[in-house]
Amino acid sequence: xxxxxxxxxxxxxxxxxxxxxxxxxxxxxxxxxxxxxxxxxxxxxxxxxxxxxxxxxxxxxxxxxxxxxxxxxxxxxxxxxxxxxxxxxxxxxxxxxxxxxxxxxxxxxxxxxxxxxxxxxxxxxxxxxxxxxxxxxxxxxxxxxxxxxxxxxxxxxxxxxxxxxxxxxxxxxxxxxxxxxxxxxxxxxxxxxxxxxxxxxxxxxxxxxxxxxxxxxxxxxxxxxxxxxxxxxxxxxxxxxxxxxxxxxxxxxxxxxxxxxxxxxxxxxxxxxxxxxxxxxxxxxxxxxxxxxxxxxxxxxxxxxxxxxxxxxxxxxxxxxxxxxxxxxxxxxxxxxxxxxxxxxxxxxxxxxxxxxxxxxxxxxxxxxxxxxxxxxxxxxxxxxxxxxxxxxxxxxxxxxxxxxxxxxxxxxxxxxxxxxxxxxxxxxxxxxxxx
Length: 436
Ligand code: UDX
Prior knowledge:
With 436 residues, the chain is of the alpha/beta class. It has 3 domains: 2-196, NAD(P)-binding Rossmann-like Domain (Rossmann fold, 3-Layer(aba) Sandwich); 205-293, N-(1-d-carboxylethyl)-l-norvaline Dehydrogenase, domain 2 (Orthogonal Bundle); 297-428, 3-Layer(aba) Sandwich (Rossmann fold). 42% of the residues lie in helices and 14% in strands. The protein is built from 17 helices and 14 strands. The protein has helices spanning 10-21, 33-40, 51-60, 70-74, 97-109, 126-135, 156-161, 173-183, 198-229, 233-241, 262-275, 281-293, 297-304, 332-342, 355-362, 396-402, 417-422; strands spanning 2-6, 25-29, 64-67, 79-82, 114-118, 142-146, 166-169, 193-196, 313-317, 346-350, 367-368, 381-384, 407-410, 426-428. The strands form 3 sheets. The protein has a 6-stranded parallel β-sheet with strand order 3-2-1-4-5-6, sandwiched between helices. A 6-stranded parallel β-sheet has the order 11-10-9-12-13-14. Strand 5, helix 6 and strand 6 form a beta-alpha-beta unit. The radius of gyration is 24 Å and the shape is elongated. The N and C termini lie far apart (63 Å). The mean pLDDT is 96. Uridine-5'-diphosphate-xylopyranose (UDX) binds at residues 149-153, 209, 212, 216, 250-252, 254, 257-259, 261-262, 321-322. Pathway: Nucleotide-sugar biosynthesis; UDP-alpha-D-glucuronate biosynthesis; UDP-alpha-D-glucuronate from UDP-alpha-D-glucose: step 1/1. Its EC number is 1.1.1.22.
């Protein structure tokens, strides 16, 4: 099938490449001339494990094309995916100007029937707005479908190729058939394609992310309670996770969720609720808990250093909001850097992938270490903000030998508390009992 993907950001590029991988002919359109040039020359513009190999293969075999020209890009396509940014506006609601702008243009240039798909996370009612924007000028038939993505950064290719489910929101039989054919190769293992109306599909995406964010904030509050009551969150987590209705996944306490999706989507759903005069109390609490959780380690750090961080130097491992990505949007590490420097401390940072992105935002407020152990030079303590695998089994002798004090504040519960005690570390983590 010939398809077009408008927008070559994270979702667009992964979707376009993965659609090409099953034999579709894909044209990706972007207004950014430089990006289109880079992509056409075989340069993958985002970091995502496994993407480069697929990208190179499909580009070489002529199934992936890039252009800045929308009209040329959609010429032979049967399906047009809109994978455009929907940044939060000043009031927290999603800004639809990119999507509606392209919809308006599409209305003017459509020459035959096409399915136009909202792939970006968009508020309930957007399919209606997109339909209206296209219909204003369109002289041919078309259908607008809501088909939200559920890709996790770091495993996006795998999530796309073998999705747990595909959600397709449409009231048109014709569009339903085309979308079903397009996704058939991805659900061969038996996972469902779930058809529904447009609005339910739009809400499904927000409900999924908000539910997961709720799970995390819930566990983070249980972790706080564990510390206060003298219980161990690792035990409680295992205890509840073995109940199928709760499930083992997404129960790990830490220093808060970040990234481009959870914070933005929870906020947008609260905003949508307000617009229909509903106060979504649980989600307000989820956001509130998460804001505080990002600074969960700070009181522990202050306490250890007798409330005075002036002149102290910290090593910070992990900057990305989670492992296997260079994405630092809403990353807890940035909040920690802010608090530490505000308190008069200096910080040296290391991350396997996100150093350049942090340089762009934080500049010379911190020093950038070449290596995870060099980062420890002269530091009074090590703080861990992201659970990269390379931090999980470090050389503790080297850590002990380099840090000024054997002190670790771990925001991701990477190490066994008893082991750290044996090794002679002062070790603080999230919601776990001190070693006896
Ligand atoms: C998420 C959704 O999982 C995905 O379906 C959606 O399409 C986009 O948003 P992503 O933002 O890539 O994907 O990250 P995810 O792996 O879900 O993690 C989100 C955040 O939750 C991270 O900050 C992570 O550190 C945190 N988290 C996750 C926890 O704190 N504890 C957990 O147990 C799991």
